[in-house]
Amino acid sequence: MRAEVVTFGEIMLRLCPEGYERIVQAQSFGATYAGSEASVAVDLCCLGVPARFVSKVPCNPVGQAAVNALRRYGVGTQGMVRGGERLGIYFAERGMGMRAGQVVYDRANSAMAQASSADFDWDSLLDGAAWLHFSGITPALGGQTPRICEDACRAAHARGIPVSIDVNFRRKLWAPQRAGEVLSRLLPGARLVFCGAQEMEELFGIACEEETPSERAFAEDAARLCKKFGVGAVATTLREGARAQENMLAGLLFDGAQCHVSREYDVCIVDRLGGGDAYAAGLICSLLKGEPPARAVEFAAAAACLKHTCDGDFMQVTAQEVAALADGAGGGRVRR
């Protein structure tokens, strides 16, 4: 069996108004499928890394459509559980200029939110796995999902499988205190944690001394997070921008000893959603290949940059395109 990255989370139906219409004015919505961990699995496959997605979807045509969307990119779906009432939905409105984009969730009582520990046999699901990844969105669904995530971490640690966790705090899903309590049980022993300065302070009490986090401040806070939870490395992105379609973006990776920062990208944004997942996929891909941290963060930042130019949550670019940008190519010229 080939070694695969296993990602675990909820896949959802994404509904978007046409162009830059607002949700309140839309007469029709374009339908795609997305979710943080599903996006990471797809993005890894786009980068040439075998990936498998574990989730629970309803046993109906909508659930099957979500599974088919993953299979299109080569994602393994043999770990998908069928059952539950419905597939979660979210409405995504693109921002324009000074108007920020927004997401509206309709995911109560979804199949994943109703999942139980008995649904997932992690000894079997992690067979042949080289890495396990999930985000804080998964335990935020409530019910038994925090326990399921603990089961997954325990099984991965027992097998010596590296675990990465994207804190990915969503205030619309749970309160900071509850998020901190649950995630504090999941982080110990993780190989890689994606966590920004604000999340470190709100969820784990690691306060940044600088109003605008810098490379130095991130390194200090990340070192404290590593010490507190026994984490191997911490990563994040730095983003600046006053307009929804243009941001400055850079990646940071604290490897447990020092901080590595990528070059800064002036990003023209087609679709911002999924950028963090592309960054995560880029880092996981690089670390699995044994790339040094400085190279890994450059590759991951380039992946995130290119994802912003693609419509939908999934990264529609190849490893060769990412590597070319990380090595300095660019300019937007037509390739002939």
| Alpha-carbon distance between the two ends | 39 Å
Contiguous runs where pLDDT drops below 50 for at least 5 residues:
none
| Helix/sheet category | alpha/beta
The global form is globular
Largest sheet: 10 strands, mixed
Radius of gyration computed on alpha carbons: 19 Å
What does the average pLDDT come to? 92
Q: Please give the share of residues in helix.
A: 25-40%
Helix segment count? 10
Q: Which percent range describes the beta-strand content?
A: 15-25%
**Run of helices and strands:** EEEHEHEEEHEHEHEHHEEEEHHH
Number of strands: 14
Task: Please explain how this structure is put together.
This protein is an alpha/beta fold and 336 residues long. It is built from 10 helices and 14 strands. The protein has helices spanning 36-46, 61-71, 122-125, 145-159, 176-186, 197-204, 215-229, 275-288, 293-307, 319-326; strands spanning 4-8, 12-17, 29-34, 51-57, 80-82, 89-93, 102-106, 129-135, 163-166, 192-194, 234-243, 246-254, 259-261, 265-268. The strands form 2 sheets. Strands 1, 4, 5, 8, 9, 10, 11, 12, 13 and 14 form a 10-stranded mixed sheet that branches. It has a 4-stranded mixed sheet with strand order 3-2-6-7. Helix 5 links the parallel strand 9 and strand 10 (192-194). Helix 8 runs antiparallel to helix 9. The protein is globular and about 50 Å long. The termini are far apart. The model has no long low-confidence stretch (mean pLDDT 92).
